[in-house]
Write a structure and sequence with these properties.
With 171 residues, the chain is an alpha+beta fold. The chain has helices spanning 6-14, 77-89, 103-111, 156-166; strands at 20-23, 32-40, 42-47, 67-71, 95-100, 117-120, 131-135, 143-150. The longest helix is centred in the middle third of the chain and has 13 residues, at 77-89.
Amino acid sequence: LEERPNAFQVEAVLKEELDMGFVRLARVPAGLHMESVLEDTFSLVIPENYPLSGGKFKGMQEFSKDNFILFSQEYSPFYYQTIMSICSDAGFIPRISHKSVHAHTIFKLVENNLGIAIVPTALQYGFQMRVKFIELKQLKQRAVLSVIWKKENANPVLKNCMDLLLGGSSS
């Protein structure tokens, strides 16, 4: 397993350096298959001691003055645009203070009061940090994770893996 930006995974699968990749993209070049494997909600990530007005989350608009920490646009343009649309729907353009390609780094920056973040909800598991996650179930936007593979790749291990992952619909 290798962690790579979406564009690098696409390139590596096309060149057959990788058999498959997991990406957050709206589309891929001709010659690749793409199937959704997980549709997730987004969660707002705030420092553990963040003062919510009235102690309750009222909506994204209450965070319009905060600094945001995002995954880099180069790492995942589709994800970046999705976060921008979430903020736009709430009536503001986020002030971006930091960008990273690693969830752990984003959470550390939030923990140290350098901003807030919006991430796929599933990313909250496996970290022990002083941050709170507020699931944004009401949003229309979803974090979609897809698997990609080259149509002509004849590796039998890839076929078996795709059959397991997709329940036999990879043909």
